[in-house]
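Retro notes (design track)

What went well: tokenization of the new backbones is finally stable.
What didn't: we kept losing track of which sequence belonged to which structure.
Fix going forward: every design gets posted as structure first, then sequence, in one message. First example under the new rule, 232 residues:
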């Protein structure tokens, strides 16, 4: 697997996506999570949220939509900490600390010939959001990422636009041993920002005493959009 970013997505400022494959001998969702005190010690809630996340939504045409990282900070401040197991807690803490939207998805089999593409929807894509059974169309121009064959996105992992949702088909299940951690980064931020999010996830997993392997997925060259081929 290689991670690619389309030219249209790069024009939005998404130049530093990072993806890691998480592999564990035990089911990823079986590990106990963090207590409220442990989570509080890791969150760094006063750290500024990068402006690039709001800029990204504005560039997509949704200036009034609040980024996922800001929404989660408000939710935890209002409702308090709720643990969902070590892996989900690690993503939650990293989101709270860095203000980022982070994807966690059941990984495809290694070596299955599919790459992961970050791109903008062409308008024919559909997604069944997590915890739903109803398929929804993804508007043209919204941000998506998912598996590709021959440079085309199939079965998007996630959709970002007026809505921000993951695909039900790629949710972690009780017997999931491998997952993909997807960090898109933010316009105006360099690669260090994306990499620090991965470091935070690893830090929280270590604090939760979950033993797993966290392997970076290689980055590929920018991918031409299917409706804007090279030389056009």
């Amino acid at each position: 697997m290689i991670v690619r970013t389309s030219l249209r997505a790069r024009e939005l400022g998404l130049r530093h996506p990072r993806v890691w494959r998480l592999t564990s001998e035990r089911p990823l969702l079986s590990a106990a999570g963090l207590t409220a005190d442990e989570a509080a010690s890791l969150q760094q809630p006063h750290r500024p949220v990068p402006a690039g996340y709001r800029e990204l939504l504005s560039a997509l045409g949704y200036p009034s939509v609040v980024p996922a990282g800001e929404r989660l900070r408000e939710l935890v401040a209002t409702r308090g900490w709720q643990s969902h197991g070590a892996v989900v807690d690690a993503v939650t803490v990293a989101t709270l600390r860095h203000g980022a939207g982070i994807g966690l998805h059941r990984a495809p089999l290694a070596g299955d010939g599919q790459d992961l593409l970050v791109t903008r929807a062409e308008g024919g894509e559909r997604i069944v959001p997590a915890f739903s059974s109803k398929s929804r169309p993804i508007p043209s121009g919204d941000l998506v990422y998912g598996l590709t064959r021959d440079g085309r996105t199939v079965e998007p992992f996630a959709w970002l636009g007026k809505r921000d949702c993951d695909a039900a088909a790629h949710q972690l299940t009780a017997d999931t041993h491998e997952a993909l951690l997807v960090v898109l980064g933010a316009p105006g931020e360099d690669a260090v920002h994306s990499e620090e999010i991965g470091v935070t996830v690893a830090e929280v997993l270590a604090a939760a005493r979950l033993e797993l392997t966290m392997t970076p997925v290689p980055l590929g060259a920018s991918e031409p959009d299917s409706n804007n081929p090279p030389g056009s």
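Added context from the reviewer: The helical segments are 7-11, 36-43, 52-59, 68-79, 86-98, 191-207.
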